[in-house]
Amino acid sequence: MCVEPVGVGMAAAAAAAVVSYCKPSPFIGQFPSSFGKSVSSQSIEISMQASGITALFWGSKKSQPLVSSLGDFTLTGSATEGVIENQARDKKISVSVLSSIMEVSSHEWDACTLDVTGPEKYNPFLTHGFLSSLEETGCAVKETGWMPSHIVAKDESENILGVVPLYLKSHSYGEFVFDHSWADAYYSFGSRYYPKFQCCVPFTPVTGPRILIRNTSFKDQVFDIIVSALKDLTAKAQVSSLHITFPSETEWHKLKDKGFLKRIGMQYHWKNRNYKSFDEFLMDMKQSKRKNIRQERKKISARNLTMKRLRGYEIKADHWDSFYKFYRNTTDNKWGSPYLTRDFFHEMGSKMGDQVLLVAAEEGDELVAGALNLIGGDTLFGRLWGCHPQVYYPSLHFEACYYQAIEAAIELNLSTVEAGAQGEHKIQRGYLPVTTYSCHYFMDKGFRKAIEEFLVRESSQVRLVMKLLHDSGPFKEGIH
């Protein structure tokens, strides 16, 4: 990687990043027109003699999976009685990179996930079933710019102590934490931003732990070892950066001390205040907002649309085929290209079972729209929406994505509905701003310094916007 010296160039890189987030902005001045210029993509070859890793990426006719040992580590101290392991002193841990999640059993991966979240915060997107569905159906694979490079930590008996969903990426699509202008600025000053490492759930802006560790008495040491291995991998691979997006708030704070920059964002979530019915929820709303929601819901019955909430075995192959068409209608109109394949929905639905909730809108016997949700320990995660391309149904999007989700959360006694990224229109429908988190580790010290300064200003702006939105929220005074 070509490293740009500290100075004006790196300050400009931060300025380009500011421009991308929200403009106009009081923090933005005037910058040369060269900032943010695009650079043609190139084939990338990485050779890592020191660690024995050789990988050929995008544009090469030959390729090898990025698989290697990241080293052996020794734990210190002793374990506490009553926990899974015996003495931790002199316990050896090996850390490796895997080219597919299929190299780890679903039982072992999910044990790490469940230990770190607990049943009450169970997150279906972190499971082997969801992540393997993305790989097996060609969604999160090398050919789409998502090369699986998952981290696994094992003890001397081959017991898995921790895993991390990690990808080597050739672009910034499907992440929902936007760094395109960071890449442009990097290229503008002669450096290469891609490939980069991305620790995340592909195509899914859902907050949750990213470093998934078994609940042992030495789990904090395992966490530190894995983070150190991630940073070493970033350096040895000669990539620009490592990004951990939508981690838990706890991880976000801990990673600052490990050299990561902290970034915040914003989403809109609905909170269940022990409601017994949708009408009870409406009574907490301001009169004008309550009236608007009722009018929107009446439009659904006026069109003779029937809303159904389907789970598990109730969702048939025909439902998934129809939903894929609806999903394509949305992506074709909004983004231009789909991230997910038809097979993904079938595979994911089969593996996830009752964790899947499909809101279906029917006109007569015909399915005309749908909204995909996943059910977690205390949260309903709203993910994708689509409708029949030939017909327009007023307010159906709000009904399928927001109101049906609220009804389902009340029925299932869930505390939260996460309705995905962006969309201020969610506020007047009861979804309020919450903070999301990301962590960023840069190899270039100059670029890191410039981005750090930008993130301080950006964070202040995000917090101000969130306060303003809360102060003008849809609920009666005293309800937050």
Given as residue ranges, the uncertain stretches (5+ residues, pLDDT < 50) are: 1-65, 79-85
Number of strands: 18
Major sheet attributes: 11 strands, mixed
Spatial gap, N to C terminus: 48 Å
Secondary-structure element order, as H and E?
A: HEEEEHHEEEEHEEHEHEHHEHHEEEHEEH
The pLDDT mean sits at: 86
Short synopsis of the structure:
The chain is α+β, with helices and mostly antiparallel strands. It has twelve helices and 18 strands. The chain has helices at 8-21, 106-117, 128-136, 180-188, 219-236, 249-256, 278-282, 287-302, 317-334, 342-352, 396-412, 445-471, and strands at residues 45-48, 53-56, 68-74, 92-98, 146-148, 150-155, 160-164, 166-169, 196-199, 212-213, 241-245, 261-271, 305-311, 356-363, 366-375, 379-387, 416-421, 432-442.
Which descriptors apply to this entry?
480 residues, alpha+beta, five-stranded antiparallel sheet, 24% strand, globular, disordered N terminus
Descriptive report:
It contains twelve helices and 18 strands. The chain has 480 residues and is an alpha+beta fold. It has an eleven-stranded mixed beta sheet with strand order 5-8-9-11-18-12-17-16-15-14-13, with helices on both faces. It has a five-stranded antiparallel beta sheet with strand order 3-4-6-7-10, sandwiched between helices. A two-stranded antiparallel ribbon has the order 1-2. A hairpin with a 4-residue loop joins strand 6 (150-155) and strand 7 (160-164). Residues 1-65 and 79-85 have low confidence and may be disordered.
